Every structure is written in structure tokens, then in C-alpha cells.
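Dear support,

I submitted the protein below through the web form. The confirmation email said the job was done, but the results page showed an empty box. After a refresh the structure appeared. I'm attaching both so you can tell me whether what I see now is the final result or a partial one.
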Amino acid sequence: MVGLGAHELYSPDVVSSYGRQQAVPVSICSGGKQPMSKRARQEPKNDKMKRKPYEKELRKLHVELCHLQEWVKAKGLRVIIAFEGRDAAGKGGTIKALTERVSPRVFRVVALPAPSDRERSQMYLQRYLAHFPAAGEVVIFDRSWYNRAGVERVMGFVSDEQYERFLKLCPQIEKYIVDTGIILIKIWLEVGMEEQEKRFAARVDDPLRQWKLSPMDVESYSRWYDYSRARDAMLKTTNSKHAPWFIVRSDDKRRGRLNCVSHILKSVPYKKIRKPKVQLPGRSKKGAYDDQAALKGQNFVSEIY
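What the results page shows now:
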């Protein structure tokens, strides 16, 4: 799997069950199977997926993720999944869908805060390298080293020289990462302008979402086309055969999540590991006593519900 080109990674049936909002390779696919039509690549699906069919399909994918988890542990695989995209594109919900039924000791989510003064003095990639996977781990970056090509570029946190150097060196560094045996999957979640506006408006009024609305998010909202140009430059210069970008349209959150998880399952070859069915042993009655009575007088949480 490691080092394969975009045409080898992509298959039209990867996410065909979930409508047109598929994981779309940045480079044009070739070899063996027909690529998606131009219209299918560019247009989001208008009819939103209903909850019941979504949950049904997600359960199937969760079962496969559990099989993948066992394979990763058994074979000592190292996997990195880098999630990028506009604010309110649905990264958090997609990562939750990916991880809610697997072990956090295997699927580890990394969401780094703004760099400290000490980290700013380090080699740029250094603080990300510290979180790279060991054998039997899948590390999910909720935003990654591509901050330099996105928010740092748009907000002026990086000089032109630093930015250009990053774009030049990034494919080379990722080649080294892949050559060490790490499976690197790069996902860009693409949300439309109107849908992003709806999600921002919902965050303003919903106390459960207001924490998502940082000053940086508000500023990014007003710079739509600056972010578009930064995205275009990033995809153009860092999409490579050894580490291709895949775009997931996320105007329909549910379809986007299913398509993304399905793509990840296709990107890491695995087999179901058969294990003997667990038989629970009988409980010993030796030393039995009233263990509930022993709790009398301890502090209990008030049973409000």
C-alpha cells in the first residue's frame, strides 16, 4: 500500500453506496477503472441523508473498523490520517464517527493548540513528529503540519520565505515518512460557502456549539477566497504519488462521514482476524460476603435521575 499512486489508491466503488459526495482524488485517476464524471466530482448532493439509514451504514463501517484495529495491532502497522479543511467543514464530527467504537489506545487523536514560544523556536515539523505512531497505532491529526499552508499563510503568521520553503520541502518529508513504512492518508473536507454560513450561524445561537466559534474562526469566515487560494496552492504543490490528497465533500455531514470512513478502510489493506469465542469463567464463591452493605456510609452521587 505504501508508496502507491493516486490511481492505485482510488476506486470508484470506495464510497459509491453513499451518493456523489465521495472521496475525490486530487490527481486524475487512471488505470483499470473509470474515473468519476466531472459533474460528480464538482457537485454536492442536494438531498441530505436521513438519520436511520446513516446509523445503519455507520454501524457496518464500525464493525469493519474494529476488524482493521485488530489487524493494525497484529501486524504492527503505523498509520497517520491527516484531516484538513475549512472551518465548520465537519472535521470533528468525522473524527468522532471514525473513533467512537474503537480503542483510544490504538486510534489516537492529536489536536495540537497554538505553538508555545519554545515550539516556535524548533524545527517546524518537530512538535508533530513527537506524536507519530508506534507499531500498532493509528494517529489522527485534527489539523496537522498543513497549518502552515492554511491558517498561518492566510492570517500572516508566516513569512513568504517560510511558506514557500514549506511547500517545497513537504513532499520530500512525506516521501521519507512513507518510505519508513508509515501509511499516510491525507483528507481535505470541503464545505460550500452557503453551508458554512449556516453552520456558523448555528454556532452563534447554540450554547452547545459556541465553544467552536473562536476569534480565529470568525476571522476566517470573512476570508473565504483567501482560504480558497491557499487550498489551491497547497493541493497543487503537495499532492504526490506517495502521499496524495483526497477531497471529501461535506455539505451533507452524514454522507461525508460515511464516505470518509469508507475511504480510510479501503486505504489500509486488512483482513478479519478470527479469534476463539470468549467463554466467561464461573465466579468463585470463596470468601463471599455482602459487598454492597460494606459501602454503607460512603459518599454517593445524588440520584437526580
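Response: this is the final, complete result; the empty box was a page-load delay. Residues 6-270 form a domain with the Rossmann fold fold (CATH 3.40.50.300).
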